[in-house]
């Protein structure tokens, strides 16, 4: 009985001394500086089209129930639309209302399973994924 308690104590001690430390994680996740809403839209025959709307989120009024989080359209944001293999498909820019249109022949997207919308905003690089 005493030997089992000793083993149990040693196992508990081992468990608590070998737990994960946050600094040792494989990678850090940083939130995107913009909110990207991407949806498929109607296109001409043989074409594929996606509309993207990009917002900066102003969280300064998050604690005030009358203000909340404000979404501000991001104008002039340059975006690279890439395949899952990081092959560049198109470079597009958002309009004054934060919207942009990605349109391409469906035949050129054969084998593509995911679109990656990448850009830089306020010096921070971001990547937004959209599965097809």
From TrEMBL:
Source species, domain of life:
Bacteria
Extent of the signal sequence: 1-21
Q: Which PROSITE patterns match?
A: PROKAR_LIPOPROTEIN
What keyword terms does UniProt attach to this protein? Signal
For this entry, the protein name equals: CHRD domain-containing protein
Q: Which organism is it from?
A: Neolewinella agarilytica
